[in-house]
Amino acid sequence: MSRDARWKALLELLVERGRLEVEQAAAELEVSAATIRRDFDQLAEQQMLVRTRGGAVVHGVSYELPLRYKTARRASEKQRIAKAVAELVAPGEAVGLTGGTTTTEVARALAVRGDLSTGSPPLTVVTNALNIANELAVRPQFKIVVTGGVARPQSYELIGPLADGVLGQITLDVAVLGVVAFDAVHGAAAHDEAEAAINRLLCERAERVVVAADSSKLGRRAFARICDTALVNTLVTDTAVEQETVRRFEEAGVRVRTA
Which of 60-74, 94-108, 231-245 has the lowest mean pLDDT? Predict the structure, then answer.
């Protein structure tokens, strides 16, 4: 197992359980305890975990796993959600995409829809996510608009007043939000307040708002609120969502689509 694969596995286990012991992690990943100790030390140096005697713990409730380590989590669900979200977009529309693994899959699903290149103008994608812009920039049929701002390494998103300046001058047909939490009462949220502020502005510039979130994100709260539930038109999630959760969102005026 490569170091990157091992680190990804360690971080995912840590986020899932909150705490890991060296011997436990070594047994699960089938490597030596010395290797795990070295991994924990190096990850602690990067402030991706907190080292403890005999193991490691997450930073706390606001802990955020960097995007490059989240790509394999619930991959099939995210791909199904992305395809369903892409089907909600019409040729010629202007689409806003926030950062995140699910919205990255949405970008890929849009890219393989041949009919979206037939609009006049063709599909316009506005994003503050560097990785999404990088993937779509090679698609000549799309118009790609990237906001300014300062890059946030955890999510590859551009944040700050430079991004505000661009978004304040455009209008969108649809904004697609990737979120870490979406609750029928408390709304959509992110870990970082600066990231949430840019996402909120995307919502305000859009005629309709779509939240793309797997069922593990629903009914949860996070530190920084993006928008109220009332601002969201559609929630696209996976089929594992509980019916009670669907009912709460529908009562709040959100159309729920499962994939």
Answer: 60-74
pLDDT digit string, tens, across residues 209-255: 999 999 989 999 888 999 999 999 999 999 999 999 999 999 999 99
What is the C-alpha to C-alpha distance for residues 1 and 36, in angstroms, rounded to an integer?
Answer: 12
Return the pLDDT at 66. 55
Neighbours of 35 (CB within 10 A): 16
Nearest-5° Cα angle at 230, 227 to 232: 70
**Which residues, including other chains, have CB under 8 Å from residue 178's CB and lie 6 or more apart?**
98, 99, 100, 101, 102, 103, 212, 213
What is the rounded CA–CA span in Å between residue 204 and residue 226? 10
Region for residue 22 given its phi and psi (left: phi exceeds 0; alpha: psi -120 to 50; beta: otherwise)? alpha
Q: Note the pTM of the prediction, 2 decimals.
A: 0.76
What is the rounded end-to-end Cα distance, in angstroms, of the chain?
Answer: 33
Cβ proximity of 220 and 181 under 8 Å: yes
Token pair 């490597």 in the structure block, residue: 31
Q: Hey, is 188 helix, strand or coil?
A: strand
